[in-house]
Design goal:
disordered N terminus, 293 residues, mainly alpha, 3 strands
Length: 293
């Protein structure tokens, strides 16, 4: 399937004549939004910890010792291992963006998942630069350890993170516009945008903090990792609506927006995934090969 320009949708051929449903309200089922958010946030976390840090650990010749929702302990420390989690999130965010551009307009729940996967991965990736630059802790603080003039490096990380995070939030807001096209009234569009952005923020943050509470590293690790990555890393979802205040919604696609109806499949699948995520990665997976070294 060819990948088109991300976010480009046409109103023709989706729901009859152009604007045929423009005056109708369009559903955005809350339990389904929560389910999609849970899957997207779990995937972003697993990509960061298991694929990013864990994969780099193996590539560097090390062995994973412990994998949880908030950390990956490796038998060796290297800058590549420290950086890999963020890099994988950024690559995944770009991949989700490309897939979003080629997804069928009528597959609204899939499109919303791809949009959220793009937003969460890119925000957590760029946000980590800002977090480590300001706080002096975390993956990128480890990465610059030993560099000369550490304050210069921290300032650079903070600036890089702040600018890139702002641009990512703006991009995510732009890609959200097709989901708002079923609302002709500006205040109604903003209410819908709030529902589509606040819901994953609250659901994803609650899930991250709840799962992180079972981490064997204790409360400190949960605060600097689970809470920071969710409450801080996804905070762009709370204010990206400011980019949507001017002008009408772009890409009039009421069919896409209307498709965010209840899905028992998404809800059941998310419930099962959340259960496994909390039960297994909450307390963590201990690797015998790593512990034996």
């Amino acid at each position: 399937m060819a990948v088109g320009k991300p976010g480009a949708l046409s109103s023709r051929g989706l729901a009859g004549e152009p604007g045929a449903q423009a005056s109708r309200g369009v559903p955005a089922d809350l339990p389904t939004l929560v389910a999609i958010a849970a899957v997207a946030c779990i995937l972003a976390n697993v990509l960061h910890e298991a694929v990013g840090h864990g994969g780099a650990c193996l590539l560097e010749g090390g062995h994973p010792v412990l994998l949880t929702t908030v950390n990956l302990d490796c038998t060796l420390a290297s800058r590549f291992v420290s950086a890999a989690g963020t890099l994988v999130n950024l690559i995944a965010g770009g991949a989700f963006w490309m897939l979003l551009g080629g997804a069928p307009a009528r597959a609204a729940r899939l499109r919303y998942f791809l949009w959220l996967g793009m937003a969460v991965n890119l925000m957590e990736g760029t946000g980590y630069f800002l977090y480590s630059g300001v706080s002096g802790i975390g993956d990128w603080a480890d990465f610059i350890t030993g560099f000369p003039a550490p304050w210069v490096w921290r300032a650079g990380l903070a600036i890089l993170g702040g600018v890139s995070y702002f641009l990512v939030a703006r991009l995510a807001a732009h890609e959200l516009r097709p989901f708002l096209a079923g609302q002709t009234d500006r205040s109604a569009r903003m209410r819908r945008a709030r529902r589509l952005t606040f819901t994953p923020y609250i659901a994803g943050s609650a899930l991250a903090c709840f799962a992180g509470a079972f981490n064997p590293g204790g409360v400190y690790l949960e605060i600097i990792s689970a809470a920071a990555a969710s409450l801080g890393g996804m905070s762009g979802l709370l204010w990206m609506r400011s980019f949507l205040r001017g002008g009408p919604a772009e890409g009039a696609a009421p069919g896409a927006a209307a498709g965010l109806a209840r899905s028992w499949g998404w809800m059941a699948g998310a419930a099962a995934l959340v259960g496994l995520y909390v039960a297994i990665l909450g307390p963590g997976i201990h690797f015998a090969a790593g512990a034996a070294r």
